[in-house]
Amino acid sequence: MAKSSSVSKFKQDNKTAYLLLAPIVILLTIFVVVPFFYALVVSFYDWSFYQESKFVGFRNYYLVLTDDLFLESVWTGLKFALMVVPSMLVLSFLFASVVKNLSPRFSGFVKTSVYIPTIISGIVASVIFVFIYDYTAGLANYILGWFGVEPIAWLADVRTALPSIAVPAVWLGFGLTSLIMLSGLHDIPESYYEAAELEGAGTWAKMRHITIPLMRNVILYLLVTGFTAQISQFELSLVMTNGGPLSETVTPNLYILNHFRNDVMVGNSIAASLLLFVVLGSISAIIFRVLNSEKAIDG
Amino acid sequence: MQKQKGKKLKSLTVMSSALLTLSLAATACGGSNGGGNASPSASDTGSAPASASASASPSASAPASESAAPAEKVTVDFWAQKFEDTTDAWFKKYVDAYNKSQNNVQIKLTIVPGDAWDQKMKAAQAAGKAPEIRTINYGNIANAAKTGQIQALDGLMDPTAFDDLYDNVKAFVSVGGKYYAYPKLVEPSAVMYYRKDLFEAAGLDPEKPPTTWAELLEDAKKLTKKGVFGLSIAQNAPDLGWSSWGLQYNAAGHLALTDDWSKADINNDGYKALYKFYQDAYQSGAMPKQQLAGYADIKGFGEGKVAIQICGSWAMGQLRNSYKDIVGKVGIAPMASIDGDQTKPTATLGGWTLAVDGKAKHPQEAAGFIQYLLAGDPAIMIDFFKTAQFSKFSPRKSVDEAMKSDPDASKDQWRALIAEKIIPYAKGEPLYPWDVALAVSTGIESAMKGTSVDKAIAKAEKDVNDFIAKNKLAGTNPQA
After folding, report:
1. From A94, A244, B12, B129, which residue has the greatest number of CB atoms within 10 Å?
2. Is the minimum CB–CB distance between B86 and chain A shorter than 8 Å?
3. CA-closest candidate to residue A150, choices A133, A164, A136, A161
4. How do residues B296-352 score in pLDDT, each as one tens digit?
């Protein structure tokens, strides 16, 4: 009696599990799996909406891979991510460390205000920063004017354009990163620090030997999502520079969007998207490799 | 007790997840069905209930039985790109008038912002929900016709409508001997706007604007003062891509490809002079290092920060509508020419047309509306040119003829100057792919930013030739 009931319960559990999994599996199938394989198929065709599609084999991939601009755009995306992600991590780590020690009421206020940029859309942020970088009337050049510095062509100069776009990206991502960092910091048991203090460890030693190692998983998560998000960034350069000066700020997604908008056939943009998928996948894999994820010693 | 609680909880989750699945599936279906009508709210023209119910069910008949609209009334979607507010209002006004004037066709106007146009159109085309009537500019007609995105209007419209067009404009809208779009307007891409008062202050004759590139650069330098730049002209590749076509004709006598599109034709003295002109202009310090606004926007000039601005004829409308206080101090002239010969082209004629989608279900009805709006009563078009402050020009002889008797139009001197001194010499826009234009203009921008002219041209030439080879462009010129 007892046995049979436990067996039926086991089955019952399975059913429930499948049922609970169903929504996400169905959604993933509709919105991820099917489109992905469809894209894979279409990438081998000269695809247009008004004529018969023509099978062209790897031609679309060949066109993308031999296009200097595509390789350049991947490099631009990498440079951009290298500017944005580390500075964002360092800044938010410092910020979170400060906020952790604030009184609960005040820290609530600070957390809310630092989160505000996160809910601002990238387009709005771009427009705000376009005003800031305006050549004659922008805030940035106005402040430089106090020190008698000549106005800088922030968005038109080959040297300053990409860093200028990186600033709003940091600003936009800072809030969320800080909050994740903060929750990571709160997860580290106080007893570790107390023990270390008894052993005579200073602030620096505590950070090096306790905080940073225990934050490894949080940092890994932020690195992977940060790199993926920043390399795929395109609305900032779309609005602020339209990829210029020259092609200095054409990120991979902007390259794809430009082809999608201008090309008569769509195959090229799809091949480029799939190649970008490969690029992003490899970068995430490399990060995982380097920063081996481990379970924290203390759950 | 605990067990029971657990069970209850479980069945609750099961139920809720089942519900969730169901609702998600339902919304997913709804989404794909309603995709074409993604944003009808943007510009429903007032007759909301009737048009909504009619548009939702041209093929599926279930909801139609509920609607009171007469069954045979056809709804035709019309997407217009967003232009000046006055243009949007003009579209709305005459769509309403047309809908009221007859009982067979309901035109449903949607105004789509320019930067969303391509994505929205591509998505609609992929879903088979493209609007039956759309705006399209001259440069895109040939490609759209070749790929079947738009269909020929011969046979759908009254043939005499096309006889009314100026000959050069006829060429802009025809591909392979057929007309694929009906033009609404032409506008030259380059006109020189200058501040007469600043000319005087700098010791220059305000009645003698520069006529050669050398004079233009010289005057620009003299006009540059603290807070005022002498010259503003396109300075980044996307803007240069189209705004330099007129000057390419001016300097070289042709555009960037040979007639059969087999190779680039830019490694010559004409193009070198053009690259040099832009390079000198940018590096002289008379131009802002970062553009104050895009080429198509005369904001910097309007705000008094620029003494000479090159911009399209449309800027007349912007000046008269938004910067009324400086209009009295503004002079206009044809853009300076390489050697001072003002009968050489300095501008291309851009402009907009309406076309019927290649898969339109009601081509006859769609073309009927185009006939009414653009090719019918000249008064409709005159109303448009008036609201645009005569900054755009008619492709139709009969409209120009009727405009002669219009008091406002006939006494407008700016209009007269552009109509007499710029448009007759202006050329059509090239039909080759935008990538070619962009490669040439990226070369110009790199010359402005310090690359030597020879290097910049060599790079652009290589890029264009690579593009031709990869995309098998040779021999595909639809007008060769």
Report:
1. A244
2. no
3. A136
4. 999 999 999 999 999 999 999 889 888 999 999 999 999 999 999 999 999 999 999
Q: What is the value of pTM for the model shown?
A: 0.79
The β-bridge partners of B191 are: B311
Quote ipTM for the complex. Answer: 0.80
Does residue A255 contact residue A81 with C-beta atoms inside 8 Å? no
Beta bridge pairs of residue B396: B165
The identity of residue B13, as a single letter, is T
Chain A: residue whose CA lies nearest to B122: A261
Stretch A129-139: mean pLDDT, rounded? 92
**Do the chains contact at A23 and B24, CB–CB below 8 Å?**
yes
CA gap B347, B338 in Å, rounded: 13
Q: Select the residue of B130, B149, B289 nearest A156 (Cβ to Cβ).
A: B289
The set of residues, in sequence order, having a beta carbon less than 8 Å from that of A51 and lying 6+ positions away, is B147, B148
Exposure on the CB side of residue A99, measured as CA atoms within 13 A: 26
Q: How confident is the model at residue B431 (pLDDT cuts 50, 70, 90)?
A: confident
Q: Work out the angle between the directed axes of helices A252-262 and A68-100 (0-180°, nearest 10).
A: 130
With H, G, I as helix, E, B as strand and everything else as coil, classify residue B436: helix
Residue B7 pLDDT grade (very low, low, confident, very high; cuts 50, 70, 90): very low
Residue B269's contacts (CB-CB under 8 Å, 6 or more residues apart) are: none
**Residue B91 one-letter amino acid:** F
What tokens appear for A103 in the block? 């009184």
Cα distance between residue B207 and residue B222, in whole Å: 16
Euclidean distance between CA atoms A283 and A290, whole angstroms: 11
Backbone angles phi, psi at B112, to 5 degrees: -110, 125
